[in-house]
Amino acid sequence: MKKALLSLALSLAAMSGPAVAAPGEVPEGGTLQQMPMQGLTGGSKLLGDYRGKPLIINVWASYCPPCLAEMGSLERLSKRYGKQFNVIGISIDDYPERAQAFLAQAKTSFPHFIDRKLALENMLGANRIPLTVLVDADGKILHKVYGAKEWDSPDTVEAIGKAFGLRM
C-alpha cells in the first residue's frame, strides 16, 4: 500500500508545473475566477458554468505539435469518463480559423473555446503548452500538468481519479 501511494505521489509530482506563479496566475490550491469564454465548437460560456462537477482544462495552440499529439487521448478520456467530469479545450491562438483547422485534425467532441485576449492563459499560467489543469467541482485548481501526456493511460487515469476523489 505504501509503495502504491508513493508511486502515485511521484507520478503526480512528475506531472507538476513551475513552483513560482506568474503575475495574475491562480496557483494550485487557488480558486479560478469567473471568466467569459468565446466558443469555438459551440456557444460562448462562463468558466463558472462548469462548476458542480470536476473539470479538466486543456490549453493548446494550433502551432503546437505536442498539443495535437495528446488530443486523441483526451478525447478517449472524455468519452469514457465524461459522466464523472468535464473536459474542455482552450486555444490561445490569435486567429479562430487556425484553431478551427487544428480542431478539424484533432477530431474531438468535447467543447473548445478561444482565448484571444489571453485572460484565461494568464489566469491558468499557460506559459508553456500544452497545459492541462485539473479543477475540482468548486473551481479549485488541484493540479497543473505541463507537456503532452497520454491522458487515458492506466496510471494517468488512476492519478486523475485520486485527484478528483473518484472511482475510475
Automatic annotation (TrEMBL):
The segment(s) forming the Thioredoxin domain are 26-165
Assign the protein's first listed, main location to one coarse class. other
The answer to whether UniProt assigns keyword Disulfide bond to this entry is: yes
Q: Which UniProt keywords apply?
A: Cytochrome c-type biogenesis, Disulfide bond, Redox-active center, Signal
Q: Which SUPFAM superfamilies match?
A: Thioredoxin-like (SSF52833)
- Cellular location of this protein? Cell envelope
Q: Which segment of the chain is annotated as a signal peptide?
A: 1-21
Q: Organism's domain of life? A: Bacteria
Tell me the Gene3D superfamilies matching this sequence.
Answer: Glutaredoxin
Q: What name does the UniProt record give this protein?
A: TlpA disulfide reductase family protein
